[in-house]
Amino acid sequence: MQIIEQQIKTKLSSSAKFYGYIPDVSQEIDPAAERPSVLICPGGGYVMTSDREAEPVALNFVAAGFNAFVLRYSIAPARYPVALLEVASAMKLIRKNSAAWHVDPKRVIIAGFSAGGHLAANFATSWDRDLVTEYGYHADEIQPNGLFLGYSVITSGKYAHVDSFKNLLGDRYGEPELMSKVSLEKQVTKSTPPAFIWHTVSDDTVPVENSLLFAEALEAHQISFELHLFPKGGHGLSLGTSATAIKSNGYGLEPTVSAWRDLFVAWVQNNI
């Protein structure tokens, strides 16, 4: 397996780290193999990027037949839209190297957990708008073909995870126009890619209504999506297995939700 580590540079930053996990192509099995690929944005309230939602998730995707990439994007005190541009540059990098990395260019998925899910959804709803008109990216080089959201921050309204938005916006938190722009249930368009979404109903940090609002917006725009709601489990469960549970207290071990990986793989096979 090829492991890649490099810095992501944009017009606003140069501090993001990009990691790639690319299985070798077997000359015996399929020398021309192209794989679906996932760019993962770990969560962390825009003040950290969680280890539990980074490499362990990437390796799990690799085991399922994907190329996996992790973006350790800029966090506070960096402010919007720094991380968003880093996602665009990471996506551009993946597409630029699609042949060398055996990436299927028609199956590149942006993924995120918690606040990383907000970043992923922000990118998925803006890839052909501001990123093109204001920052000079070409739509065809950054287009996401699918969107994965795990217990994601979505809305800046009634069900907001307030600290994520304060960390993202800094002194601009509360500006009506900007608050609306980063409330992503309001930003879905016809060009938003198909989505796979999961959440726990009992999430006591990011209310499940975040995912419900986004799903409702997708439905209103006739965007295909698959939504899974699990009846129990807190926030930040990642894989729900011992691989991502916190050793000191066992938090994150929730077998009920661990089914999401296989559900996601099947969704990609059938929809992307």
Automatic annotation (TrEMBL):
Q: Does the keyword 4Fe-4S apply?
A: no
- Keywords of this protein's UniProt record, alphabetized? Hydrolase
Tell me the ranges covered by the BD-FAE-like domain, including all copies.
33-218
Q: Which GO terms describe its molecular function?
A: hydrolase activity
| InterPro entries (UniProt xref) | AB_hydrolase_fold, BD-FAE-like_dom, GDXG_lipolytic_enzyme
Signal sequence span is none
- Pfam entry (one): BD-FAE
Domain of life according to the entry: Bacteria
For this protein, the record's PANTHER family field holds: AB HYDROLASE SUPERFAMILY PROTEIN C4A8.06C (PTHR48081), PEPTIDASE S9 PROLYL OLIGOPEPTIDASE CATALYTIC DOMAIN-CONTAINING PROTEIN (PTHR48081:SF6)
Q: What is the name of this protein?
A: Alpha/beta hydrolase
Q: Which organism is it from?
A: Lapidilactobacillus mulanensis
